[in-house]
Amino acid sequence: MAEKMKLDIKKTLLIGFGFMATSIAWAIYDPYVSKLLNEKLMDSAFITDLSLNLSQRIPFLLKLAEAQGDDIKAAGGAFTLVPFFVGVIMTFDNIFGVIFQPLFGRISDRTHTRFGKRRPFIFVAAPISAALFILIPRMSTLPALMLVVILFVFVMSAWRAPVVALMPDLTPPKLRSEGNAIINLTGGIGGLIGMFAGTLLCLIFGFDSKLNEERPYVFIMGAIVMILGTLVLAFFVKEPDSRLQARAEYAEIGEEEAKAKEREKLKAMKLSKGERRSLIFMLVTLFFVFAGTNTIQTFFALFAAEILDKTTQQATLMMGVFGLSSMAAAIPAGKLGTKYGRKNIITVGLLSFILMFGVYAVFQYMWLIWPALIVGGIAGMFITVNTLPLVLEIGGVERVGTFTGYYYTATFSAQVAAPIAYGVVRVLTGTYMSLFVFCPIAFALALLCVLQVKHGEAIPEELIKEAEMQGD
Question: How much is the pTM?
Fold first, then answer.
């Protein structure tokens, strides 16, 4: 009997350094760039005039901005919508992800170099991203800052799908849930490091955070990690030369016939009607899942202040519990997905979310928020670890980059739409308690969609054993 396949944990951890680098960068980008934009926009006479004009013409914008936690103040009869504009600009990374990540994922599928399909994108785009990252806090004017920010989010979108596609490329399909667990774990560690990077630098070097003395060094730290991640992938992660198969076919049957065969192969890889249906429902599932989880992460501090009477620091601690429980569940989530089926574990995660958040929404006992956050963190990882491998299984081994791009189209679309959608809900309901109604509804819609998915499952382990026994 053939020996049971095992995940190469060392190789997967090394691959995870690339995703860790992107996670650290985004964890630094979100809080620091929003502050930089706020400073520059507050000094802009054009934005002040535009804010006044819009607030007079469309009063609902002010209510929406307030619902999203923006500090809207009256000053001489005028209102500022600066936080609203900051929020719009901060969605650029998600918008660029929706537009460009599928494109670069598809291009990487068709790339043939001696370095493989994915690593050339990382080797080129990651150092450029690092250089732009260092420049962000050094821009003295709003136009210069906007230019660098736009370039940065564009270049980052050029290598995110390829770096994520590395793991499934180099991992047997049935082990991808376990591999994705390690990738998510490294990404979670990277996010935590990035989140506390400023605090660490202030403690080590004595910077004054009130004067933002640590700001440029935080960006340098993020850039260094991006370069280190690139070097790890360059020296310790080897992709096969993607030109070799094409050369072998050219030598065997001739270049023209080989190209014709490749075109026929691409046509044959078109999804069946059932596979297309499963893919659509899976992408819609992802949209609702990330709409729910992103809304929790975005608005929890505001919920905690209004409903739980907690400070921002206490709310951050509570979300830290959510994050730590997610990280603790990563490896078990991958193993369970491999053993019992990805769709089954995703379903368990969604049901757990709905149950715990629903119970809290109904009874509203303060102590229930802790089990809700712990179970929610675990449930979120059960879902996240198994969704990407399921989507990739539908696409097949030849289109890993393309379908990774589709995955991020769905998730990033949710991250653009969810804050706006919940902001409207908050305006209409008048309370942040609606957060624990909005999110279970999103998860319930995700559950209804995932139940329609009939493809993309890993082959059950018992069937593999049965086939091996018959082979013997």
Answer: 0.82
Name the architecture of domain 271-471: Up-down Bundle (1.20)
Task: Please state which architecture CATH assigns to domain 9-237.
Answer: Up-down Bundle (1.20)
Q: Residue 74 forms beta bridges with which residues?
A: 79
Residue-wise pLDDT tens digits, 279-330:
999 999 999 999 999 898 888 888 998 899 988 778 878 888 898 899 999 9
Query: Cα separation of 29 and 34, whole Å?
Result: 8
Residue 77, φ and ψ in degrees, nearest 5: 85, -5
List the chain domain ranges: 9-237, 271-471
Average pLDDT over residues 201-228: 91
Name all contacts of 241-244 with Cβ < 8 Å and 24+ positions apart.
Answer: 241/113, 241/114, 241/115, 241/116, 242/111, 242/112, 242/113, 242/116, 242/117, 243/112, 243/113, 243/114
At residue 118, does pLDDT exceed 70?
Answer: yes
